[in-house]
Design a protein that fits this description.
310 residues; alpha/beta; 6 helices; 15 strands; binds manganese (II) ion
Length: 310
Protein backbone atom coordinates (compact mmCIF):
# COMPACT_ATOMS: atom_id res chain seq x y z
CA UNK A 1 0.00 0.00 0.00
CA UNK A 2 1.45 3.42 -0.89
CA UNK A 3 1.89 6.06 1.79
CA UNK A 4 0.61 9.58 2.03
CA UNK A 5 2.78 12.47 3.22
CA UNK A 6 0.84 15.55 4.31
CA UNK A 7 2.42 18.99 4.73
CA UNK A 8 -0.02 21.32 6.47
CA UNK A 9 1.43 24.67 5.40
CA UNK A 10 4.46 26.83 6.29
CA UNK A 11 6.87 24.27 4.90
CA UNK A 12 8.95 27.46 4.49
CA UNK A 13 9.06 30.21 7.10
CA UNK A 14 9.05 32.84 4.31
CA UNK A 15 8.64 32.96 0.52
CA UNK A 16 10.43 29.94 -0.97
CA UNK A 17 13.15 30.53 -3.56
CA UNK A 18 12.84 28.67 -6.86
CA UNK A 19 15.88 26.53 -6.07
CA UNK A 20 14.37 25.65 -2.68
CA UNK A 21 11.20 24.39 -4.38
CA UNK A 22 13.35 22.36 -6.79
CA UNK A 23 15.28 20.81 -3.89
CA UNK A 24 12.19 19.92 -1.90
CA UNK A 25 10.40 18.60 -4.97
CA UNK A 26 13.44 16.43 -5.71
CA UNK A 27 13.26 14.99 -2.20
CA UNK A 28 9.51 14.37 -2.48
CA UNK A 29 10.01 12.72 -5.89
CA UNK A 30 12.59 10.36 -4.41
CA UNK A 31 9.86 8.84 -2.18
CA UNK A 32 8.88 6.23 -4.71
CA UNK A 33 5.84 4.79 -2.93
CA UNK A 34 4.56 8.02 -1.41
CA UNK A 35 2.03 10.57 -2.58
CA UNK A 36 2.62 14.06 -1.18
CA UNK A 37 -0.07 16.70 -0.62
CA UNK A 38 0.78 20.19 0.54
CA UNK A 39 -0.67 23.67 0.97
CA UNK A 40 0.87 27.12 1.50
CA UNK A 41 0.49 28.64 4.98
CA UNK A 42 0.61 32.23 6.18
CA UNK A 43 4.43 32.42 6.19
CA UNK A 44 4.94 30.97 2.70
CA UNK A 45 1.62 32.42 1.42
CA UNK A 46 1.06 32.68 -2.32
CA UNK A 47 1.74 36.33 -2.94
CA UNK A 48 1.53 37.59 -6.52
CA UNK A 49 5.10 36.75 -7.53
CA UNK A 50 5.35 33.54 -5.45
CA UNK A 51 7.14 30.65 -7.18
CA UNK A 52 4.37 28.42 -5.86
CA UNK A 53 2.12 29.89 -8.58
CA UNK A 54 4.09 28.53 -11.52
CA UNK A 55 6.14 25.67 -10.12
CA UNK A 56 5.79 22.28 -11.84
CA UNK A 57 5.74 19.62 -9.16
CA UNK A 58 6.67 15.98 -9.74
CA UNK A 59 3.75 13.64 -10.53
CA UNK A 60 3.53 12.29 -6.95
CA UNK A 61 3.32 15.81 -5.45
CA UNK A 62 -0.06 17.55 -5.22
CA UNK A 63 -0.13 21.23 -4.30
CA UNK A 64 -3.57 22.57 -3.30
CA UNK A 65 -3.00 26.18 -4.36
CA UNK A 66 -6.53 27.56 -4.49
CA UNK A 67 -7.69 30.12 -1.93
CA UNK A 68 -10.91 28.07 -1.52
CA UNK A 69 -11.01 24.50 -0.23
CA UNK A 70 -10.49 22.06 -3.11
CA UNK A 71 -9.70 18.35 -3.20
CA UNK A 72 -7.15 16.08 -4.81
CA UNK A 73 -8.29 12.51 -5.39
CA UNK A 74 -5.81 9.68 -5.02
CA UNK A 75 -7.73 6.63 -6.32
CA UNK A 76 -4.86 4.22 -5.62
CA UNK A 77 -5.26 5.11 -1.96
CA UNK A 78 -9.06 5.44 -2.18
CA UNK A 79 -8.44 8.79 -0.56
CA UNK A 80 -9.28 12.45 -1.22
CA UNK A 81 -7.33 15.23 0.49
CA UNK A 82 -9.02 18.61 0.91
CA UNK A 83 -7.33 21.90 1.56
CA UNK A 84 -6.54 25.43 0.41
CA UNK A 85 -3.58 27.81 0.42
CA UNK A 86 -3.08 31.24 1.93
CA UNK A 87 -2.98 33.99 -0.69
CA UNK A 88 -2.56 36.61 2.03
CA UNK A 89 -0.80 36.73 5.37
CA UNK A 90 -4.04 36.71 7.29
CA UNK A 91 -7.42 35.08 6.73
CA UNK A 92 -10.17 35.88 9.24
CA UNK A 93 -12.85 33.88 7.47
CA UNK A 94 -13.47 30.40 8.99
CA UNK A 95 -13.02 28.73 5.59
CA UNK A 96 -13.03 25.15 6.84
CA UNK A 97 -16.43 25.49 8.56
CA UNK A 98 -18.18 25.38 5.19
CA UNK A 99 -16.01 22.67 3.61
CA UNK A 100 -17.43 19.29 4.59
CA UNK A 101 -16.10 15.99 3.26
CA UNK A 102 -18.01 15.47 0.00
CA UNK A 103 -17.71 11.69 -0.32
CA UNK A 104 -15.49 11.65 -3.42
CA UNK A 105 -13.38 8.76 -2.08
CA UNK A 106 -13.66 6.19 0.70
CA UNK A 107 -11.28 8.08 2.98
CA UNK A 108 -11.38 11.87 3.17
CA UNK A 109 -8.75 13.99 4.87
CA UNK A 110 -8.61 17.73 5.53
CA UNK A 111 -5.26 19.50 5.36
CA UNK A 112 -5.72 22.70 7.36
CA UNK A 113 -3.54 25.59 8.41
CA UNK A 114 -4.23 28.12 11.15
CA UNK A 115 -6.81 27.97 13.89
CA UNK A 116 -6.33 31.32 15.60
CA UNK A 117 -8.36 34.51 15.18
CA UNK A 118 -6.41 35.87 12.21
CA UNK A 119 -5.51 32.59 10.52
CA UNK A 120 -8.71 30.75 9.55
CA UNK A 121 -10.40 30.39 12.95
CA UNK A 122 -11.35 26.80 13.74
CA UNK A 123 -14.31 25.71 15.81
CA UNK A 124 -13.70 22.23 17.27
CA UNK A 125 -17.33 21.09 17.21
CA UNK A 126 -17.79 22.23 13.61
CA UNK A 127 -14.53 20.58 12.60
CA UNK A 128 -15.58 17.34 14.28
CA UNK A 129 -18.86 17.41 12.35
CA UNK A 130 -17.41 17.90 8.84
CA UNK A 131 -17.12 14.17 8.17
CA UNK A 132 -13.35 13.81 7.67
CA UNK A 133 -11.48 10.67 8.73
CA UNK A 134 -8.52 12.82 9.76
CA UNK A 135 -7.63 16.51 9.98
CA UNK A 136 -3.93 17.31 9.61
CA UNK A 137 -3.30 20.72 11.18
CA UNK A 138 -0.41 23.12 10.75
CA UNK A 139 0.54 26.56 12.12
CA UNK A 140 1.16 26.03 15.84
CA UNK A 141 4.78 24.93 16.42
CA UNK A 142 4.02 22.79 19.45
CA UNK A 143 2.66 19.36 18.53
CA UNK A 144 -0.79 18.80 20.01
CA UNK A 145 -3.97 16.79 19.61
CA UNK A 146 -7.00 19.03 19.01
CA UNK A 147 -9.69 16.35 18.71
CA UNK A 148 -8.67 12.87 19.95
CA UNK A 149 -8.68 10.35 17.13
CA UNK A 150 -9.45 13.03 14.54
CA UNK A 151 -7.36 16.21 14.48
CA UNK A 152 -3.83 17.17 15.53
CA UNK A 153 -1.10 19.75 14.97
CA UNK A 154 2.14 18.08 13.92
CA UNK A 155 4.12 21.11 15.06
CA UNK A 156 7.43 22.17 13.53
CA UNK A 157 9.75 19.31 12.51
CA UNK A 158 12.58 21.17 14.21
CA UNK A 159 12.23 23.97 16.78
CA UNK A 160 12.52 27.31 14.97
CA UNK A 161 13.06 29.57 17.98
CA UNK A 162 14.58 29.32 21.46
CA UNK A 163 11.14 29.36 23.04
CA UNK A 164 9.98 26.40 20.91
CA UNK A 165 10.67 24.06 23.79
CA UNK A 166 9.60 20.44 24.03
CA UNK A 167 9.84 17.57 21.58
CA UNK A 168 9.40 18.24 17.88
CA UNK A 169 8.70 15.80 15.09
CA UNK A 170 5.81 14.58 12.97
CA UNK A 171 2.55 12.71 13.27
CA UNK A 172 2.26 9.20 11.94
CA UNK A 173 -1.13 7.63 11.52
CA UNK A 174 -3.13 4.90 9.94
CA UNK A 175 -6.70 4.97 8.69
CA UNK A 176 -8.34 1.55 8.55
CA UNK A 177 -11.87 0.12 8.57
CA UNK A 178 -11.65 0.27 12.35
CA UNK A 179 -10.98 4.01 12.38
CA UNK A 180 -8.13 6.48 12.60
CA UNK A 181 -5.24 6.14 14.97
CA UNK A 182 -2.23 8.42 15.07
CA UNK A 183 0.65 9.32 17.33
CA UNK A 184 3.45 11.83 17.58
CA UNK A 185 6.94 10.72 16.51
CA UNK A 186 9.86 12.76 17.94
CA UNK A 187 12.29 13.46 15.11
CA UNK A 188 14.09 16.78 15.72
CA UNK A 189 17.89 16.71 15.91
CA UNK A 190 17.88 19.21 18.75
CA UNK A 191 15.55 20.49 21.43
CA UNK A 192 15.43 23.81 23.27
CA UNK A 193 15.25 23.13 27.00
CA UNK A 194 14.43 25.61 29.77
CA UNK A 195 15.94 24.41 33.01
CA UNK A 196 15.83 25.51 36.64
CA UNK A 197 18.82 24.96 38.92
CA UNK A 198 18.56 25.26 42.69
CA UNK A 199 21.60 26.49 44.61
CA UNK A 200 22.17 26.62 48.36
CA UNK A 201 24.65 28.11 50.87
CA UNK A 202 27.26 25.51 49.98
CA UNK A 203 27.16 26.09 46.21
CA UNK A 204 30.37 27.64 44.88
CA UNK A 205 30.91 28.89 41.35
CA UNK A 206 32.68 25.65 40.45
CA UNK A 207 29.89 23.66 42.11
CA UNK A 208 27.30 25.51 40.06
CA UNK A 209 29.26 24.82 36.85
CA UNK A 210 29.18 21.12 37.76
CA UNK A 211 25.43 21.23 38.47
CA UNK A 212 24.82 22.82 35.08
CA UNK A 213 27.06 20.41 33.18
CA UNK A 214 25.32 17.55 34.99
CA UNK A 215 21.91 18.79 33.83
CA UNK A 216 23.17 19.16 30.26
CA UNK A 217 24.62 15.64 30.27
CA UNK A 218 21.42 14.24 31.76
CA UNK A 219 19.12 15.95 29.23
CA UNK A 220 21.38 15.65 26.20
CA UNK A 221 24.51 17.54 25.08
CA UNK A 222 22.99 18.00 21.61
CA UNK A 223 20.26 20.28 23.01
CA UNK A 224 20.29 24.04 23.55
CA UNK A 225 19.60 25.43 27.01
CA UNK A 226 18.21 28.36 28.90
CA UNK A 227 18.95 28.25 32.65
CA UNK A 228 17.21 29.92 35.57
CA UNK A 229 19.16 29.93 38.84
CA UNK A 230 17.08 29.82 42.04
CA UNK A 231 17.66 29.37 45.74
CA UNK A 232 19.73 30.98 48.49
CA UNK A 233 23.45 31.39 47.91
CA UNK A 234 26.26 32.23 50.27
CA UNK A 235 26.12 36.08 50.44
CA UNK A 236 29.88 36.21 49.73
CA UNK A 237 29.58 34.24 46.51
CA UNK A 238 28.88 35.84 43.14
CA UNK A 239 28.36 33.51 40.19
CA UNK A 240 30.34 34.20 37.03
CA UNK A 241 27.61 33.45 34.49
CA UNK A 242 29.86 33.83 31.43
CA UNK A 243 32.11 31.00 32.61
CA UNK A 244 29.26 28.49 32.77
CA UNK A 245 28.72 27.94 29.04
CA UNK A 246 31.49 25.39 28.49
CA UNK A 247 30.01 23.70 25.45
CA UNK A 248 28.52 26.79 23.82
CA UNK A 249 24.98 25.43 24.03
CA UNK A 250 23.47 27.83 26.57
CA UNK A 251 21.53 30.80 25.16
CA UNK A 252 20.54 32.45 28.46
CA UNK A 253 21.32 32.19 32.14
CA UNK A 254 19.19 34.23 34.54
CA UNK A 255 20.41 34.52 38.11
CA UNK A 256 17.51 34.87 40.53
CA UNK A 257 19.43 33.50 43.50
CA UNK A 258 19.23 35.40 46.75
CA UNK A 259 21.84 35.80 49.45
CA UNK A 260 21.22 33.49 52.40
CA UNK A 261 21.61 35.97 55.24
CA UNK A 262 22.64 34.72 58.66
CA UNK A 263 20.02 36.76 60.52
CA UNK A 264 21.45 36.23 64.01
CA UNK A 265 24.90 37.36 62.97
CA UNK A 266 23.50 40.29 60.98
CA UNK A 267 21.47 41.33 64.04
CA UNK A 268 24.48 41.09 66.39
CA UNK A 269 26.54 43.27 64.09
CA UNK A 270 23.84 45.86 63.32
CA UNK A 271 22.03 46.24 66.67
CA UNK A 272 22.35 50.02 66.61
CA UNK A 273 21.23 50.78 63.09
CA UNK A 274 18.19 50.44 60.84
CA UNK A 275 19.04 46.88 59.79
CA UNK A 276 19.20 45.74 63.41
CA UNK A 277 15.92 47.44 64.28
CA UNK A 278 14.27 45.97 61.19
CA UNK A 279 15.37 42.43 62.11
CA UNK A 280 14.21 43.00 65.70
CA UNK A 281 10.70 43.93 64.54
CA UNK A 282 10.36 40.42 63.06
CA UNK A 283 11.66 38.55 66.10
CA UNK A 284 9.98 35.19 66.50
CA UNK A 285 9.06 34.86 62.78
CA UNK A 286 9.05 31.18 61.79
CA UNK A 287 11.32 30.14 58.93
CA UNK A 288 9.30 29.73 55.68
CA UNK A 289 6.51 31.99 57.03
CA UNK A 290 5.26 35.06 55.19
CA UNK A 291 6.78 37.22 57.96
CA UNK A 292 10.15 35.58 57.50
CA UNK A 293 10.02 36.21 53.77
CA UNK A 294 9.19 39.88 54.43
CA UNK A 295 12.13 40.01 56.83
CA UNK A 296 14.36 38.44 54.20
CA UNK A 297 13.30 40.73 51.35
CA UNK A 298 13.57 43.79 53.59
CA UNK A 299 17.07 42.90 54.78
CA UNK A 300 18.16 42.21 51.18
CA UNK A 301 16.88 45.63 50.10
CA UNK A 302 18.54 47.36 53.04
CA UNK A 303 21.83 45.57 52.46
CA UNK A 304 21.75 46.59 48.84
CA UNK A 305 21.20 50.28 49.47
CA UNK A 306 23.33 50.56 52.52
CA UNK A 307 25.93 47.90 53.01
CA UNK A 308 25.59 46.84 56.69
CA UNK A 309 28.13 44.91 58.67
CA UNK A 310 27.94 41.25 57.97
MN1 LIG B 1 1.43 29.45 10.07
Amino acid sequence: MPDLLLVAGDLFHRQPLLRELKEVDGLFASLDRTQVVLVAGNHDYMRRESYYRTFQWSPNVHFLGSDRVEAVELPALETAVYGCSYHERQIREPLYDSAPAAGRQKTEILLAHGGDGTHIPINRERLAGLGYAYVALGHIHMPQVVIPGLAAYAGALEPTDKNDTGKHGYIQGEITEGGTCFSFVPFAGREYIHCEVEVDRRTTGAGLAELIQGKIEEKGVENIYKFLLKGYRDPDILFDLDALDRRGNITDITDETKPAWDMEKLYRNNKNNLIGRYIESFSGAEKDSVEYRALFEGVSALMETRRGTE
